[in-house]
Amino acid sequence: MNAYASIKLVPASKIDTITTTELKEYFLYYKDITAKTGDQVDWTYGQAAFPYEIIDSNEKQAEQITLYSEKERYRAILISIQKEKIMDHDNTPRIQTNICFTLPEGATFGDKGKANEYCKFLAKKLQAELHLFNGRVMYYYKRKLQ
Fold it and tell me: Which InterPro entries does its entry note (predicted)?
């Protein structure tokens, strides 16, 4: 199941660039808030909401982390930070940061569901543009009418 989704940090986003350390902080925050929800309902929701271990890896020049799980329904999600040069609507070049979610071979439908959940969470927090696995685009930033 090779599939890709990406979060694009556009000019209207909360931040222009992100590091793997900051990404890990967002995932730790996600684990914390889901654990608190679990405490309120007296259930271990934190473990069900984030069944992964965060593993650092540097591959060539792209920063990457892996969410790895040994749970029955989950395997892995690869998350990399990539930069691309694009042209704005007024033909000025700029560097855009993309957070890419990749489901490697052997990934399960559980991984795809969790990756969608994490993509939406991050895109909302960063006020970014989300390109989902199915090709659809969700805008979490205020768009201007032209």
Answer: DUF1885, Rbstp2229-like_sf
**Which DSSP string corresponds to the chain?**
--EEEEEEE-TTSS-S---HHHHHHHHHHHHHHHHHHHHHHTS-HHHHH---EEEEEEETTEEEEEEE--STT--EEEEEEEEEEEE-TTS-EEEEEEEEEEE-TT--HHHHHHHHHHHHHHHHHHT-EEE-TTS-EEE-SPPPP-
Domains of the chain: 3-139 (3.30.310.120)
* pTM (2 d.p.): 0.86
Tens-place pLDDT, residues 84-109: 999 887 888 989 999 999 999 989 99
